[in-house]
Design brief:
CATH class of the largest domain: Alpha Beta
Number of helices: 3
CATH topology of the largest domain: Signal recognition particle alu RNA binding heterodimer, srp9/1
Strand order of the largest sheet: 1-4-3-2
Helix content: 10-25%
Distance between the termini: 51 Å
CATH architecture of the largest domain: 2-Layer Sandwich
Structural class: alpha/beta
Length: 140
């Protein structure tokens, strides 16, 4: 028996990400993923005394809450979905980052890019536009 109705879930509100240096992480997330602090005055108090600093994209469809905390073991990967052309653009942009250990995988029905932030939080950029990306890669 389910405790709730999954259909009532509207979206993922945010993903908590634990970092050693929130200021450095904020810069990394802006540079690599284009996520910047969310200017929501009523939530600003959360970013004090170890609370979360909320980062988001312009559409506010992807939100991370950065918590400053000593290193913790990581067991999850945050997967972000994009379309085929954007996947190819992400692949080119991330491959140009010298300190990013980027892994590219063909999953037969999807393509994924795997990488981690400086605090070892793991991320994946994935697309299900499999054949469009395969064609573009073959044409290169």
């Amino acid at each position: 028996m389910s405790l709730g109705n999954g259909d009532s879930l509207l979206a993922i509100d945010h993903v908590q990400v634990f970092v050693a240096d929130r200021a450095a992480a904020c810069h990394w997330y802006a540079r690599i993923l284009g996520l910047v602090p969310v200017p929501v005055p009523e939530l600003a108090f959360w970013a004090t005394n170890g609370g979360p600093l909320t980062l988001s994209n312009a559409a506010r469809s992807v939100t991370l809450a950065l918590f400053e905390q000593a290193e913790t073991p990581h067991r999850a990967t945050v997967a972000l979905r994009v379309d085929g052309p954007d996947f190819l653009a992400w692949r080119a942009d991330l491959a140009a980052e010298p300190d990013l250990a980027l892994r590219f995988e063909d999953h037969a029905v999807a393509w994924s890019l795997y990488f981690a932030d400086p605090d070892t939080n793991r991320f994946e950029i994935t697309t299900y536009d499999y054949f469009a990306v395969a064609k573009a890669l073959a044409d290169d």
